[in-house]
Automatic annotation (TrEMBL):
Source taxon at top rank: Eukaryota
PROSITE patterns: CYTOCHROME_P450
Binding site for heme: C338
Cofactor: heme
Pfam families (UniProt xref): p450
SUPFAM superfamilies xrefs: Cytochrome P450 (SSF48264)
Keyword list, A-Z: Heme, Iron, Metal-binding, Monooxygenase, Oxidoreductase
Record protein name field: Cytochrome P450
GO molecular function, one term: monooxygenase activity
Recorded family membership: Belongs to the cytochrome P450 family.
Length: 414
């Protein structure tokens, strides 16, 4: 497995195991220790929602994450997330002044590159854009990476995020690291999705044209978008959701059962396997894989590997999702659902409107890809997206494109 990970398509090593054993949940038993892996939608739903009290982040997971990012709400299992939640109310996330400022800076860089017919690593550019935006939105402090490159009586709308946290708790030791942890998660996940959206716009020019037509219809060629515009731009949300389905920023996640064992519910119907509940030992790691669940043909149909935004507009497809919402969990689900998801949708939508008002074509510049970052030739003989993928998707804490995503932008000629 370790050898295969170096050249395999993202999570394909696990998918091959599921297919070999015709089961969606397996015990790898690595180095004499139970390690449960699952691409089962019912089991993920149990871990995240219906059986939520039976699981937590776990000691080993928290130790690893705290060494890298310190303590904070992403490693906590209690009420601390509720303190941050009010800051992301609609009144805050629909204030687009910050989005406008950093979108303009980013597109100014793109325009300069386009004028010189030069390619750009949009993965790096979007990382800087989202980092600068989130740092000012959350903390009132711009990290300026694009240029390098209270009293509780005060209304929350007048505070920065750090001021809100400071006024909401006296536990300064525990909340001191929240700044960079939330900043990292918000910026990295939003940058990831914008990167893959640009990839799809480049390889599906028909989608780019359809999306641009919707932008011009609702916002015109120059007007800034509003929250009401986003509610009416159905194709915009469809493109974002379809990208999140195929490339969720967090393609895998980990939980650990608590001190008592429990039973996982009967598995979903991906394979005709034993439908009895599964015994989940106490204090045992379970790794669930949203990327595989969101590409599962048993849930999404035979075209599950295809980029088809229309599935989010088609009423029959929507009905399947509404009846089974945990088949799509790019922002997690249950009590730990991402508190910044509306912020992310608004930022991505705002930037895409501004982008498509100025540019109408996007082309991959694969000649700029670093050596060793092109998709391996052996992928073409395999099934799934890897047989036709033009980039190398990889996973660390979040999904990314190996070697960056190099793109040329083309100005719209009015």
């Amino acid at each position: 497995m370790m050898g295969s990970f170096k050249t395999s398509y993202v999570l394909d090593v696990y998918l091959q195991l599921f297919e070999e054993y015709q089961s969606t949940t397996l015990n790898l038993r690595v180095l004499w220790r139970d390690n449960i892996i699952s691409m089962d939608q019912e089991h993920m739903k149990f871990v995240l929602a219906t059986g939520f009290p039976k699981f937590w982040r776990g000691k080993s997971q928290k130790e690893r994450m705290e060494l890298f990012l310190g303590e904070g709400i992403f490693n906590r299992d209690d009420e601390h997330r509720s303190i941050a939640r009010p800051f992301f109310a609609r009144e805050r996330i629909s204030d687009f002044d910050v989005f406008e400022r950093y979108s303009a800076r980013t597109l100014g860089i793109v325009s300069s590159l386009e004028a010189r017919n030069t390619a750009c690593d949009v993965q790096d550019l979007y990382g800087r854009f989202t980092l600068d935006t989130a740092s000012e939105f959350l903390f009132g402090k711009n990290l300026d990476t694009l240029m390098d490159g209270i009293g509780l009586s005060s209304p929350i709308a007048d505070k920065t995020f750090l001021e809100h946290l400071a006024d909401s708790t006296e536990d300064t030791v525990r909340f001191q690291p929240l700044d960079h942890k939330i900043l990292f998660r918000l910026s990295s996940q939003t940058a990831c999705t914008l990167t893959y959206i640009t990839y799809f716009l480049a390889i599906h020019p028909d989608v780019a044209q359809k999306l641009r037509s919707e932008v011009l219809e609702h916002c015109g060629p120059t007007s800034p978008p509003t929250f009401d515009h986003f509610r009416n731009m159905k194709y915009m949300r469809a493109v974002i959701n379809e990208t999140l389905r195929l490339f969720p920023p967090v393609p895998l996640n980990v939980r650990e059962s608590r001190a008592a064992p429990c039973l996982l519910p009967p598995p979903d119907r991906t394979y005709f396997s034993d439908q009895r509940p599964l015994y989940m030992p106490a204090k045992t790691i379970i790794m669930y894989l949203p990327l595989l669940i969101q590409r599962n043909p048993a849930l999404w149909g035979n075209d599950a590997d295809e980029f088809r935004p229309e599935r989010w507009i088609d009423q029959e497809s929507i009905a399947k999702y509404v009846a089974n919402p945990t088949m799509f969990t790019p922002f997690s689900a249950g009590p730990r659902i991402c508190i910044g998801q509306n912020y992310a949708y608004n930022q991505m939508s705002y930037f895409l409107v501004r982008l498509l008002q100025q540019f109408d074509r996007f082309t991959l510049a694969t000649e700029f890809q670093p050596e060793g970052s092109h998709p391996p030739s052996e992928w073409k003989g395999r099934k799934g997206r890897q047989s036709f993928e033009k980039i190398w998707p990889s996973a660390a804490l979040t999904l990314y494109v190996k070697g960056g995503l190099w793109v040329k932008f083309h100005k719209a000629r009015l």
